[in-house]
Design goal:
With about 575 residues, this protein is an alpha+beta fold. The protein folds into two domains: about 1-165, no CATH class; about 190-560, FAD/NAD(P)-binding domain (3-Layer(bba) Sandwich), CATH 3.50.50. A hairpin with a 2-residue loop joins strand 7 (about 80-85) and strand 8 (about 90). The protein starts with a strand and ends in a 17-residue tail after the last helix.
Length: about 575
């Protein structure tokens, strides 16, 4: 019998090693994560390297990644979860505590953390992980790992009713601190693009000690736009930036929303209080200019460089060189957050497909203050057209509309007149809202999304927000996903000496999620733009018959995001 430094026992012999549930697959297919039985310890696998190796092999069905685990699904479709533990990964069956099949060990009723464990946690939030590796030990009962989380650091306690060991306070997956290594010198990041995602990335990096510079092509940092919806996942990202309270105070929280048909009949209902109960925050709507102002005020003024259109990005072997209208910048990291038609993406991803037209155009506008604004917001679905409205502070309403039209179409004599022609006879309060919009305040943009990229990173350059995964606005997730990108990027870079390796981890965490949301948004838009009467009738009937609870549950993969390093909260729908 051999015990590893992680406290895991192995019997000698091929049969026993084979029977260890899930570990042989990882050792065989992922050389960087092999168990070194001679040394009796895990090699320290890098999340990005392990996953890249696994994805390249046909011995497995699929590999997924989240901020806590590598999830390997075998050809038998049984998922294995390799959770970060110490400096390596342990296999974990998320559905239930693992038992050794050969000996028929029953499931275990795990003990609650003792006062000794709670004391050792020193006020950290405790969360448990069932460590199935230890269940292969014939000489000791299974144990549970209690993970204490504070400030993105872990303190681990292996317990059998009491504390038996505690790991040092290191970042999950990080190498042990070297006594010879001094403090890391300040690193420099250049963010190309001064929109929501770029500014959020600058804030997140600045608060982790990076020297940041934001290059914006426009002559000033100002958003030309209308309203913006921030869903709970975006508010969680803003919490990491320390701005959730500020932004919440700038916005409006509507009690009720939903979907109606073109005659005004309710098809679905959304309760903001239930949204907040399930996901920790309500839906907050504010003006884009207010959000941008809050973000710019959180950065040093000398880090913001307007009128600095970027021409080229190159690597001179020592650092990245950015040529722009204002001169030349040098950085350890470049973040391309310059939108749908990103200069950075075109320069470093020259073979990537360009934006694709969604098939419909959008109008956005804000009304003047209303003496009696509508008490509820709504999205009204017609035939090949939609119009929605929601509250802003100060009695104003944010309105948005879509219509299936060829790209590049123009309206005469004005966009406001076109809106009145198309939607002026729709149910109240739509005519009154359109009448309250200044004639010169209507914005129109054709809607595009971005075909999936094979990677969001090239060396020490990363794409973020629309530059990486532009999506249609049907889920209201464009800015929300950019905020998620920003805090995840900074988390991956936190304390990582190798920028390129950290960016690979960022790519593996963000690309599958954002591309899935892009596809989902496109599907919802296609349904919303249906114009054939039988299809419209079927769509509306399905929406009316779908329970509100089911609709909210379907949004959990989008809204139930947890910021990297944050404690995991359990909802009523999660299994243990």
């Amino acid at each position: 019998m051999r015990k590893t430094s992680c406290g895991v026992a192995y019997a000698h012999g091929e049969a026993d090693y084979n029977s260890h549930y899930g570990i042989r697959e990882l050792c065989d297919i992922c050389p960087s994560a092999q168990l070194d039985l001679c040394a009796g310890a895990w090699k320290a696998p890098d999340l990005a390297v392990v996953t890249a190796e696994a994805r390249q092999l046909g011995a497995i069905g699929n590999v997924e990644v989240d901020e806590r685990a590598i999830i390997v699904k075998g050809l038998d479709e049984q998922p294995r979860y390799y959770l970060q533990h110490g400096y390596g990964y342990q296999c974990h069956d998320r559905a239930k505590p693992h038992h050794h099949r050969r000996h028929g060990r029953a499931d275990i009723d795990w003990p609650a953390p003792t006062e000794e464990v709670r004391g050792a946690a020193n006020g950290c939030r405790l969360r448990h992980v069932d460590t199935c590796l230890s269940t292969c030990c014939y000489e000791a009962p299974p144990s549970r790992t209690w993970v204490a989380l504070r400030d993105d650091r872990r303190v681990q306690h292996r317990i059998d009713g009491h504390v038996t060991e505690a790991a040092s306070d290191v970042a999950p997956g990080a190498a042990p601190p070297s006594p010879e290594r001094g403090p890391m010198p300040q690193r420099a990041a250049t963010i190309v693009g001064g929109g929501v995602g770029g500014l959020a990335a600058a804030i997140a990096l600045h608060r982790r000690g990076w020297r940041v510079e934001v290059l914006e092509r426009a002559q000033k940092f100002a958003e030309i736009g209308a309203g913006i919806s921030l869903w709970p996942n975006a508010l969680h990202a803003l919490e990491v930036l320390g701005l959730a309270g500020t932004v919440h105070a700038l916005g409006a929280v509507e009690a009720v929303g939903g979907v109606r048909d073109h005659r005004g009949r309710r098809l679905s209902r959304a309760d903001n209080a239930e949204l907040a109960r399930r996901f920790g925050h309500p839906l907050v709507v504010l003006h884009r200019a207010d959000l941008l102002r809050a973000l710019t005020e959180a950065l040093p003024a000398d880090s913001l460089r307007s009128g600095s259109e970027v021409h080229a990005v190159r690597d001179d072997g020592q650092c990245l060189v950015i040529d722009h209208r204002g001169g030349e910048s040098r950085a350890d990291l470049v973040v391309g957050a310059d939108g749908l038609r990103s200069t950075v993406r075109r320069a470093l991803w020259p073979d990537a497909a360009g934006p694709r037209y969604a098939g419909y155009t959008a109008w956005r506008m804000v009304t003047e203050p209303l003496s009696e604004p509508p008490s509820e917001g709504a999205a009204t679905w017609g035939r090949g057209a939609r119009l929605g409205y929601t509250a802003l502070p100060g009695g104003r309403m944010y309105c948005f509309a879509t219509a299936s039209l060829p790209a590049g179409s123009a309206s005469a004599p004005s966009e406001h007149a076109e809106l009145l022609r198309r939607f002026g006879s729709w149910p109240d309060p739509i005519p009154e809202l359109l009448a309250a919009v200044p004639a010169d305040a209507v914005l129109r943009h054709d809607l595009y999304d971005l075909p999936p990229l094979s990677s969001f990173v090239r060396g020490r350059v990363a794409l973020l927000g629309d530059a990486a995964h532009a999506m249609t606005p049907n889920l209201g997730q464009g800015a929300c996903q950019a905020l998620e990108d920003a805090v995840t990027l900074a988390h991956c870079l936190d304390g990582a000496p190798d920028v390129a390796a950290a960016l690979r981890s960022y790519d593996l965490q963000r690309r599958p999620r954002t591309q899935a949301i892009t596809r989902r948004s496109a599907r919802l838009g296609a349904v919303g733009q249906l114009s054939w009467p039988p299809a419209v009738l079927l769509r509306n009937t399905a929406a009316r018959l779908t329970p509100t609870r089911a609709t909210l549950r379907s949004m959990t993969p989008v809204l139930g995001w947890t910021a990297p390093g944050a404690p995991v909260t359990t909802t009523e729908n999660e299994s243990h």
